[in-house]
Amino acid sequence: MLHRLARFDRPRTAATGVMQRVYDRAASGWQDGIAQLGFLAAYDHLMAQVDLARPAQRVLDVGTGTGAFATAWTAHHGQPKHLTLMDISPAMLDIAAARLPYADTQANALGDKVQTPPQDVVLCAHVIEHLDDPSLALTWLFDRLTPGGTLVLAMSRPHWCTALVRWRWGNAAYTPTQATQMLRAAGLQDITPHRFPGGPPARVSCGYTARRPL
Ligand SMILES: C[S@@+](CC[C@H](N)C(=O)[O-])C[C@H]1O[C@@H](n2cnc3c(N)ncnc32)[C@H](O)[C@@H]1O
Predict the structure, then answer these.
(1) Alpha-carbon span 13 to 15, nearest angstrom
(2) Residue whose CA is at the smallest distance from ligand 1 atom 4
(3) Which of 74, 16, 19, 66 is nearest to 50 (CA)?
(4) For the chain, which terminus, N or C, has the lower number of CB atoms within 10 Å?
(5) Is the dihedral angle over the CA atoms 157, 160, 164, 170 positive or is it negative?
(6) Separation of alpha carbons 101 and 10, rounded Å
(7) Whose C-alpha lies nearest to ligand 1, atom 27?
(8) DSSP-assigned letter for residue 189
(9) Rounded to whole angstroms, what are the CA distances from 69 to 40, 58, 143, 144?
(10) CA angle at 203 for the pair 165 and 158, rounded to the nearest 5°
């Protein structure tokens, strides 16, 4: 299949280094900032809607930041046997590790050649829209999943409020229709957009669940 041929394991670009420094500087205020904007409640709402056929043993949070998405996961689905938190920002990873001390941390970029065992669940909130090629990034996430595994994603969507966020952070934004098409092109199925219930997250973002075919 085409999506299996378009591999994303490639050297990091200078932009990754810039991004790392930006998020290192933002790390100390990140958790309070997203809490005030309502993202913790939004992540909680999304995780409550994830329905798994069997408990997840291996969970990977890519671009974990302060670990908020992974924390919301564990609040609803329990502590997995193996939780891995991945980020390019050491400062973010330090905070995430302090909040989820039983987790492993990996200072890697989405797109790096990494030897991760197949994951039952891959989490990824507000990372794809920072990357040059979102489709290849989704293919890389697909490759981390075990057959039948679940991707839980949050991604910026277009709104005038998003323009303010984009001015500050330089990210892209995708409509749920565009996101669904990209997820399908990456090989995922059972793709469901989950609107956030209110506040800034409802305007600037959308949650998604999708499954890697068996
Ligand atoms: C907008 S923040 C989201 C953090 C967290 N997922 C949340 O929802 O609070 C983006 C995070 O992705 C990380 N990041 C950016 N580019 C990345 C990449 N290529 N690979 C892995 N992490 C990346 C940043 O360091 C930052 O922690």
Answers:
(1) 5
(2) 65
(3) 74
(4) N
(5) positive
(6) 30
(7) 65
(8) E
(9) 8, 15, 20, 17
(10) 60
SS3 120: strand
- For 13, what's the count of Cα atoms within 13 Å in the CB-facing half-sphere? 9
- pLDDT for res 2: 36
> What is the residue-level pLDDT of the chain in tens, covering all 214 positions?
333 333 444 445 557 888 899 899 999 999 999 999 999 999 999 999 999 878 899 999 999 999 999 999 999 999 999 999 999 999 999 999 999 999 999 999 999 998 889 999 999 999 999 898 999 999 999 999 999 999 999 999 987 766 666 666 667 899 999 999 999 999 999 999 999 999 999 999 999 999 999 9
| For the chain, counts of helices (H) and of strands (E) | 9, 7
Distance 181 CA to ligand 1 centre (A): 22
Ligand 1 atom closest to Cα of 20?
25
Quick one: tokens of 160?
């005038």
Residue pair 99/71 in contact by the 8 Å Cβ criterion: yes
Does the CB atom of residue 194 touch ligand 1 within 6 A? no
Look up tokens 């299949």; give the residue.
Answer: 1
Per-residue tokens: 82: 């193996």
Q: Any idea what DSSP says for residue 54?
A: S
